[in-house]
Amino acid sequence: MTDQPDLPDLAARPLGGSVIAANDEFFAEKENLIKPEPPTFRPHTFTPKGQEYDGWETRRRRGEPGSDWVIVRLGAPGLIRTVVVDTAYFVGNYPESCTVEATAVEGYPAAEDLDEHTWVELVPRSPLQGNTANTFQVSDSQRFTHVRLTIHPDGGVARLRVLGEPLPDPRELVDMPLDLVALVNGGRTTACSDSFFSPPNNMLQPGESKFMSDGWETARRRGEGNDWAVLRLAGAAVPKVAELSTLHYKGNPPHSITLSGSEDGVTWTPLLEQTEVRPDTRHRFRLTGNTPVTHVRLDIHPDGGVARFRLWGKLTEDAGTGLALSWFNLLPAEHAVAVLTGDCGLTEAAATEVVAARPVTELPEELALILR
Description:
Layout: E1 2-3, E2 18-22, E3 46-47, E4 50-51, E5 56-57, E6 68-86, E7 97-103, E8 120-127, E9 133-137, E10 143-152, E11 156-157, E12 159-166, E13 178-179, E14 188-192, E15 216-217, E16 227-245, E17 256-262, E18 269-276, E19 282-286, E20 293-301, E21 305-306, E22 308-315, H1 317-330, H2 333-342, H3 348-356, H4 365-370
Antiparallel strand pairs: 1-14, 2-6, 3-4, 5-11, 6-9, 6-10, 6-12, 7-8, 7-10, 13-22, 14-16, 15-21, 16-19, 16-20, 16-22, 17-18, 17-20
Keywords: Hydrolase, Purine metabolism
Region (Disordered): 31-52
Enzyme class: hydrolase
């Protein structure tokens, strides 16, 4: 068995992350920072601006005061646990140090509008090593929507990884059908039998799989048994429909699958009996059972690859309330006030008073009303 402690990259392009602004990208484009694949280096690939690097690289400041910066909108807002500033292949041109900050805002503001919001320091100014995945642990437990990487004074960074726990906005999920295992909704793999070729969290990404390694694929099983993955739902729910895609898996899909549900991750109840699946096909299955579950176990027989897995249903009322409470209590104060004055119509003074009383065990009445 393989535990799955790896957290998703909240900034990754496949989850919807976007690099929305940078003060300079003379040598290499800012969008490279959030590419999901590892950085590469192709020697002697010169453009009119010099050697082409797979990352973000600014020009030399030549004594000009200041630092360079880039802003990333997280594809999955949430709790940031680890930041990785990867300087792979930047050896003579990496920054001396970096700072990482984060903020949380309503809606989809333009980059220039973020200046008026409060930025929280997640990583104080810290030295960087070249050609290294520089890793920084984050202790702040608030929910953020954007991060800003500042490099001192200039140079190149191959990738920025923002690892954490997605915490979706309940206004987008409560009292409506949703994909209960989607990474962006808070679903996650907690354990699996094998992830030799690619990890099971891949099958919980948005959109269609792009190629074989963009899904979950196990090694060829030579003994008895079968492979499996345990998935934690966004919250307690009664799953109604499962979708499983074997897109791109033409010679290596599972022969068949089974699906079980659990309220505690220990005792399992069948949701879908063993059912054959086809290569390179999107399947849709109606599920049995009317009891809320918090986890599902997907068994593939005997092994193989799954491109995408979706599980449709509605959160229970208690699960929706629990999600909303977690979200509201973990919003930075400025963002929580904006929610209460915007959607809920409170005055700024009243909203500030409610926010100051957090953590709360019951949702403010005005917020509970808009979630019904």
